[in-house]
Write a structure and sequence with these properties.
Four copies of one chain form a homotetramer. Chain A has 365 residues and is an alpha/beta fold. Chain A is built from ten helices and 16 strands. In chain A, strands 3, 4, 5, 6, 7, 15 and 16 form a seven-stranded mixed β-sheet that branches. In chain A, strands 10-9-8-11-12-14 form a six-stranded parallel β-sheet, with helices on both faces. The two termini of chain A are 15 Å apart. Chains A and C meet through β12, β13, α8 and β14 of A and β12, β13, α8 and β14 of C. Bound molecules: zinc ion (8 copies). Chains A, B, C, D: InterPro entries: ADH-like_C, ADH-like_N, GroES-like_sf, NAD(P)-bd_dom_sf, Zn_alcohol_dh.
């Protein structure tokens, strides 16, 4: 295990330009508390597509891949190593590791919100560039070299590696659910969008006490999947125009509107539409606008009159990932990870993700 | 339908004294907005046992039976009649009706808490005595005469009558869940007690996002039922003494204690025990002390040091019953309603309930 | 006291058209539980101006005046009469009466939100037209005839009548404060707007634990008043353009933004501006958009990224008015009630209110 | 400044045994990021008395004094040093430093509760023993040597040193206020106990929107002080027995009980008494049981029936101290710091504190 093959992104280019190059890299000796991991699976994420379009900054040359499962090949030094829950990490364990909040900045300490850490770092583009030690700093590779002090999670033996790549989207929704104050038991929930975040929102709402879940999105195959995972109703945005979508939600809710709406669509117009779907005193979560997609005309009178509560959610803290394991253990995930690519096909994987042919693609090196 | 047979309780006596007498009563003509209901099922509740022991006051002579399902036989007058959700009530509908909060007292209006209404009235002992119009004022009877202005609920067609009698216990736990701020997704929940309230707490917790549920109680058959309804672990109080019970909960929770504990046992000592089982910053719900069972020594330092939040829950508002329908529609309830008695056997039903031979007994007239 | 002079609004016309006519009306005999009140003071409200412009519907012919203080002249019948807190109402008491929620509709009962009652009625335009019994149905009159079952409040003896007219704006802010979850002790609060609602928001924030309050508005005299009532900083919108206003708030908050922003301006653009002023995880209350003033382009990414919580507040429940008495008892209010008009000058009062020459005008008949 | 006089506690002994010895210690050279502080004032705390009675463990030999204000004499190294809010620390600044939470343990990260840090360290007994580098590890000394990475706070220029010693009690109440969900505007608050924590609770409640505050305690002089700081009513426990105290609170609250009760008495019986004083749906904060004072019989039925919410509060996070500065800036504190002792009189100071002759004593070296 002296060398590792790794997909390097020398500079930002679109997927069509096939920007990744497979290189072979010397594996540096392990420092105390560092971990060498044999990559088992790395998720391909919408964020990776954004990176290749220059919309999310990374440090190039980069190794992408931030939804990672690895098997512990070696641990540096003799000191026992623990994961974020206090469990000892052992050679042979299946692990993931989470974005590292500094726990010292204003947002981490005074606001108590590590998801908004001012100095957060993560493998897959943000920790150090790929031409600096320890080089193996992202999941699109055969091996990763995990820095001492990383936020490791030893995966329970009953958890599939697929759970981790889906857990990246799920933890955002667990965090979002916390930010809206949880569901009131029996709430009717509308989900706008049926990508990975929307579907995780659906499955989470189902398991967190929703009485009914309505999913609005496209294409039809994705909506069929939503129904399979528990959506009571689906509305196809390619078939039903906005005013009728609003009308349908009102009809499904005795004319009152939904208790809760999760925006997981990433389209500004969805917010205007969704605010018409929420009931008096209802709650609206903006979870799909990680990127800046511009403005939408909104009417403050509507918010004032219906007393709607709107909130946003940004990434997640470690606790939200851990809480999400509850769901990932019990829901069958095979149908959600729709595409598997070898490391050599990383360019193809990103092209497929960009074309939204995949619900969730993974690299299995 | 001029006469109705009804089980009258002339005065307070224990179940062993067989206090109920079956009488035949003239059915008064219907006033505007009144409803005549043919009783379909009436639950026998622990509260009824308390009434017969003089621990919960009622107005005698009484007709007990406060967990009622009836079929609408006739509606007084021509004005359309609506249930609490705004749905029109029709002859032939299966209905229940909830304790009526006055919506005018301090607790109803200023505190906004109809469950604590200062002038709440309910069929089954509290509305008017059985020797006053309209006589048919409880569920242990062939017919009920439901006063105008009652809080009716038209049952959805897919809902079994059994759901309503269990809904009486469930709504308390829905209310309790609201009072502790809902579950945080993935919470480990301990349930102390496995009577109807405890089992409803278990099933609710399971459906409201609990990651793991531990039920503590007896007898073994009841615990087996708990496992069938989703308990991950059960602890038999007849087999495991208190210190070991605490120890087991700690071991099941990495030594930290449960996120949430529901007390549904009704025994003061359970509170002292349960506070040892809850984690730092955890939450403790007292739901089992509807009756005064005396004091227990508690240590304020424990609450201070672990920053435990304790709260109590008293009955429920209409909204909690309605929210509970979510659960009652999806969970099979047959095994929970363990005993069925004809109206003539009401004394036997109460004896069985007092002996805790039943999980839930019903009168089917 | 057989006749009463009353300012009748025969039809909707603008203030400039001097729409009110003073008429003399027979006082109907009192029904059981009704109250005849001698008007002491009636506030002239921005809502009255909206009514005259046809933006808020009323039932004409109307008697306006919904911020009322009267002295009890007579009580119908012999039954003791109680106010909403349970205090007995006596002849000679100074009283007000609040908009009456039905306490039976879906919003009152299931949502538990009487401020959103579907059938709310209020004196001053909404209870019955002025050509129907009991005729004296608004505050711009010598006497009012208050219907049985009204939500009366006996004013504490140490409370000035002025408190009630200001209490109409204050209760909205007490309600709004509740809806944002209260202030965290020491919060920096920005108030957008310095009309009656904004100033009440300022004084409330000061008394509810704000560490610092920044008021943004105009004209300069109003801002001077804001400083007198406790504003730490004021920003004059006629002198400082939007980008610099945002910049000033950021500079006053170490670049982080305010913990809480209250929108009391009624201008859609204020919402876009205010969202730039609020910190990460901060809270934004929309209190100024009672009327529909159109849309404003907002960026969902901003809400998502800063995890801002936005909520709206609509009117108030009785409890919020009662809670506001705390403040009205201790703050000197003379400077806030800037203009006093006799009943004959009601047209002049409305013209002055429309021109925003007054902070708060009252009719003293 | 080569040597510093310091009050060393060689071993645990009661105040009467005069356990402190004044020694002279070499000041070690400053490491990078370390701070040498000239002590300005150190509070003598009830916790110090507990330490001398062996009820709160410390590492001996110890330097006590955990409520500290110092002037920065020197800063080690050239790197700019920042306080917890991001403000640069300069020679000459008046500073304090807070207990240091590790921000890595389960409670700090997963629970998000640094006040319950599993590895918290603090000057004044808990960081390192006094015979280990850097020796000057508590406030009862001429100088302190503050370790790199400490949680410093640069005091605003308008803040008196007294504010910091009172801030130690205040931050607990700011934290407690957060844990009960803040005050609802206008709440009636009962404070049980009028030591430093109780008085801080009083002043905080007053400034955080309480409508009325009732203080229960002794002696009469302390209650007079409470009235001076805003208590509306006081009840002297040496004059009024428990049942009458409960009766008085009920009478002051229309028979309903207080909205909120703060227990700051440290006596278990106070909890039983206080639960009788709180209204339906009211809240009870246990803040006075930092030490284990044993059990008290409590009735779970009372909690269940009144739906009381009880919670505890343990110490505080940095944010609570910072939030408390709001109050400490505006309230005159001279009367609260009742006794000042030179360093040589540290034994006398502890004797006075033990006898509760002082409200707050300080060491001014
Ligand atoms: Zn991702
Ligand atoms: Zn950070
Ligand atoms: Zn029952
Ligand atoms: Zn009531
Ligand atoms: Zn008004
Ligand atoms: Zn209503
Ligand atoms: Zn202290
Ligand atoms: Zn820690």
């Amino acid at each position: 295990m002296n060398k590792a093959r790794v997909a390097v992104l020398p500079e930002i280019k679109t997927p069509a330009e096939r920007p990744f190059q497979i290189r072979e890299v010397e594996i540096p000796p392990l420092a105390d508390g560092a971990v060498l991991g044999r990559m088992v699976m790395a998720g391909v994420c919408g964020t990776d597509v954004h990176i290749l379009h220059g919309k999310v900054p990374v440090r190039t040359p980069a190794v992408l891949g931030h939804e990672n499962v690895a098997r512990v090949e070696a641990i540096g030094g003799d000191t026992p190593l623990y994961d974020v829950t206090g469990k000892q990490v052992q050679v042979g364990d299946l692990i993931t590791w989470l974005p590292k909040s500094c726990m010292q900045c204003y947002n981490c300490t005074i606001l108590g919100d590590p998801a908004k850490c001012e100095r957060r770092i993560g493998y897959g583009g943000w920790v150090v560039p790929a031409d600096q030690h320890p080089y193996l700093v992202g999941g699109f590779a055969e091996y990763v070299w995990i820095l001492p002090g990383s936020d490791l999670v030893v995966l329970p033996p009953d958890l599939a590696p697929e759970a981790v790549v889906l857990g990246d989207a799920l933890r955002i929704m667990v965090h979002g659910l916390e930010r809206i104050g949880g569901l009131e038991y029996g709430d009717t929930v509308v989900i706008q969008g049926c990508g990975a975040v929307g579907l995780m929102g659906l499955i989470l709402a189902r398991d967190a006490g929703a009485g009914r879940v309505i999913v609005i999105g496209a294409p039809a195959t994705r909506l069929a999947l939503a129904r399979e995972y528990g959506a009571d109703e689906t509305i196809d945005i390619t078939q039903v125009p906005t005013p009728e979508r609003i009308q349908q939600v009102l009809e499904l809710t005795d004319g009152r509107g939904a208790d809760v709406v999760f925006e997981c669509a990433g389209v500004p117009a969805a917010v205007a539409e969704g605010l018409e779907m929420v009931r008096i005193d209802g709650r609206y979560l903006i979870a799909g606008h990680y990127g800046d997609a511009g403005t939408v005309p909104l009417n403050p009178h509507l918010i004032n009159r219906k007393q709607i509560t709107i909130t946003g959610v940004w990434s997640a803290a470690n606790k939200h990932f851990l809480r999400g394991l509850t769901l990932l253990r019990k829901v069958p995930l095979e149908k959600l990870v729709t595409h598997r690519f070898p490391l050599d096909a990383v360019n193809e994987a990103l092209i497929a993700a960009e074309r939204q042919e995949t619900l969730k693609a993974v690299i299995v090196p």
